[in-house]
Each structure stands twice: as C-alpha cells, then as structure tokens.
Write a structure and sequence with these properties.
Elements (H helix, E strand, L loop, with lengths): L32 H27 L10 H6 L7 H14 L17 H12 L3 H15 L7
Amino acid sequence: MSVPTCSRGWRPRPLSAKPVAGVADPGPRSSTPATIFAHCNRYAAQIVSVTIILLIVSCANFAPPPEVSPALIANARPDHVDAEQLQNGHRLFVSRCLECHTLPPVTEYSRDEWPYLVSRMSNRANLSASDQEAITVYLRAASSTTTIPP
C-alpha cells in the first residue's frame, strides 16, 4: 500500500511520529454538538454585547444642555426674559423632557424651530402653558449660544 503524496511530493506525517520540538500537542479535537454549540453561544454573546454597547453609545448625549450663563442671558434679550425664567426652563427641560427621550443637543434646531417642537410634545409631557413657555425661551436662547460651558 502506497502513502499518498501532495503536489510537492511530500508525504503527510504519520500520527505516530514524534512531536516537533517547541510545538505543544493540542490533543484530540472534539467536534461534539455541545462543543459547537458552546462556540456559537460565545460568538452570539459577543455580537449581543457589541450591539448593546453601540445602542447605548448612539443614544447617549455627550453634551449636556448649557447652564444659564451671561451669554445665554444675552441671547434671551429678544424674548424679554430674565435669568430666573431661563433657570426654570433649563430645569424643566432636563427633568421633564428626559422622562420620554434623550435630550437633543440644543443646537440641533434653530431658534425658530423650538417653539413648534416644544408645543408638539407638551401634551405628551403634560406641561402647563408657563412650563412650556419657560422651556421654549430657554431652548431659543441656548440654541443661539456658541460658547461651550466649562
């Protein structure tokens, strides 16, 4: 009986041959269904973990809404509001809007778009007219603020 050779004329090493120095014998490979299933579970767990991390990162808002500052107060002058009303608007924006969704960056919408957006969501948030006005004037002022708070 002849031993098959490869295209280069080499013969496969017999199983009883001595191991090569420095190379560990991995031992017999098990290909039982349990082993295959364990590898699939590990792979699936890695995919699920990466998916969850990506969802968290994509939903995260890395820039918190700006605090009331002199620049924000200056931007609110056209609306004739004071720092107290802006502070109230900031507090309501952070607490009430966050109940339903992540906070959008305040610069995502223009000064003129915020009133419509706030009024559209105010029914779902159960906002009073004064709360809606406070949030709107805060967002109008904050959307025009170009300085980043420390």
